[in-house]
Inverse folding.
């Protein structure tokens, strides 16, 4: 597994436990200790791989290297230059949505903040700010009104303007925000598709900063939302001979499906949650995908749910040159009470130290409580039961998600009748 921060390490650990020889390469030194003592580490990828090795990329951003490995004849899952462009270049992503025939909320791109502010003043409608460039933190913002947006744009220009190549202002569309995903094997779809609904805000009642994910629920489904959304990517997936996942995040209402952004990679925490429903060995599944030997996923029809458990300084984001240990010293903090629920936990920033599971350093993302049930609300409640037993100082997680996801699944059913 070629990783930046080790987020997919436990997927690799599952493959290791199935009897396969594995190696984990982590690129970012901030996360160098992740899964130390749990998985074999690789310092130089070229020394480890041969023609029979399956190389899994667990995150985007390494597409050129993945393309190079494919050209050399290696079996590669989960990355390409095309996928990087699809996710990180918003205009390119929208271009591919239009080419596929997917609706997009109206938007305008701007190179200068004064032009964007003038547009906001004239537009008067509720807008969403989405930046392009090498941002130091999450800056996407959904404003309540024009005055609020303009104040925020002035702040972003002053603090982060030099890091932003361009930005878009997009009309806010009311509706259910939902992701639809299909696994791909050498340019062909692997069925069934799946849906994910997630929450990003770190605190109850959607307060606090946005995170990668605070909790989510996922399930297999071939709905009209899939047919009118991600399924339309079939032509360029085949053209690119893409192997990996393709996810379309969209807002859905009575007028249809509106594409927001692509995620052509593992989703965190959606993929660890979804794989809970997979009935095949993980190693065989990913290997078969790279060889074009799979067309159907053996799966459960339940809902899978997860809730993210963390410790401070999360949700602070780590970056090179910033020492998170100075903000909240936590590397080496013991994690206890996990052994009984080991099969129901997905770990992120952990390592073994003197045979004790501890935090490996990073931002404080410890684990997910994973569960599945035929009832969405019960699935989330079971995740809470799992996390209650984990003993780690200053643990934190949202406690209001069972009701939230119950309501969201009911809303989904209004758009996709039985």
């Amino acid at each position: 597994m070629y990783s930046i921060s080790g987020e997919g390490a436990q997927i690799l650990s599952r493959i290791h436990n199935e009897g396969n020889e594995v190696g984990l390469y982590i690129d970012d030194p901030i996360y160098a200790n992740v899964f130390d003592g749990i998985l074999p580490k690789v310092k130089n990828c070229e020394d480890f791989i041969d023609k029979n090795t399956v190389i899994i990329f667990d995150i985007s951003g390494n597409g050129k290297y993945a393309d190079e490995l494919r050209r050399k004849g290696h079996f590669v899952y989960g990355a390409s230059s095309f996928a990087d462009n699809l996710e990180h270049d918003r205009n390119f992503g929208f271009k591919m949505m239009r080419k596929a025939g997917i609706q997009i909320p109206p938007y305008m791109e701007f190179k200068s903040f004064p032009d964007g502010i003038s547009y906001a003043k004239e537009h008067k409608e509720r807008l969403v700010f989405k930046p392009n460039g090498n941002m130091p933190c999450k800056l996407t913002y959904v404003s309540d009104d024009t005055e609020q947006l303009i104040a925020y744009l002035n702040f972003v220009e002053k603090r982060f303007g030099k890091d932003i190549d361009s930005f878009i202002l997009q009309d806010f569309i009311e509706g259910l925000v939902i992701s639809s995903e299909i696994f791909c094997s050498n340019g062909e779809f692997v069925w069934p598709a799946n849906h994910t609904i997630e929450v990003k805000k770190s605190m109850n009642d959607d307060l606090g900063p946005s995170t990668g994910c605070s909790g989510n629920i996922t399930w297999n489904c071939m709905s009209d939302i899939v047919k009118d959304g991600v399924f339309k990517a079939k032509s360029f997936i085949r053209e690119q001979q893409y192997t990996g996942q393709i996810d379309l995040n969209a807002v859905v209402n009575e007028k249809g499906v509106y594409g927001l952004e692509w995620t052509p990679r593992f989703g965190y925490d959606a993929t660890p949650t979804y794989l809970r429903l997979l009935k095949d060995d993980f190693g065989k599944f990913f290997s078969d995908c790279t060889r074009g030997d799979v067309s159907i996923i053996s799966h459960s029809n339940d809902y899978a749910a997860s809730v993210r458990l963390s410790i401070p300084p999360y949700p602070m984001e780590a970056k090179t040159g910033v020492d998170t240990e100075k903000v909240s010293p936590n590397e080496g903090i013991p994690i206890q009470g996990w052994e009984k629920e080991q099969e129901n936990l997905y770990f992120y920033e952990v390592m073994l130290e003197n045979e004790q599971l501890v935090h490996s350093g990073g931002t404080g993302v410890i684990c997910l409580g994973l569960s599945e049930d035929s009832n969405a609300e019960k699935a989330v409640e079971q995740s809470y039961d799992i996390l209650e037993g984990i003993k780690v100082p200053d643990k934190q997680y949202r406690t209001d998600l069972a009701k939230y996801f119950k309501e969201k699944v009911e809303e989904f059913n209004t758009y996709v009748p039985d």
Summary: The chain has 14 helices and 18 strands.
